[in-house]
Design a protein that fits this description.
two-stranded antiparallel sheet, about 80 residues, alpha+beta, about 45% helix
Length: about 80
């Protein structure tokens, strides 16, 4: 479902799901739902989950990404972020 998912990714995912006895769509939905559960994380933990620091003009900048399928949860914490 990711924009970076390739055709071969889909083939392998389907084959692995069969081997594991999983319904691929049901399993993918469960993974997305689990990833969207952020209520237990502090604002700092959210910002630091996927972050990189880059040198720029003699200083360091941090770029953080918060990826979710349920934007209401992080948007509710927007002021604290």
């Amino acid at each position: 479902r990711s924009p970076t998912t390739t055709k071969i990714d889909k083939v392998y995912a389907s084959e692995l799901a069969k081997l594991a006895g999983l319904d691929l769509n049901h399993h993918a939905n469960g993974m997305m739902e689990a990833k969207a559960q952020i209520d237990h994380l502090t604002p700092t933990e959210l910002v630091m989950m996927d972050t990189k620091v880059f040198p720029l003009g003699g200083k360091k900048i941090r770029v953080s990404v918060l990826e979710t399928t349920a934007p209401k949860a992080p948007l509710a914490k927007q002021a604290a972020l």
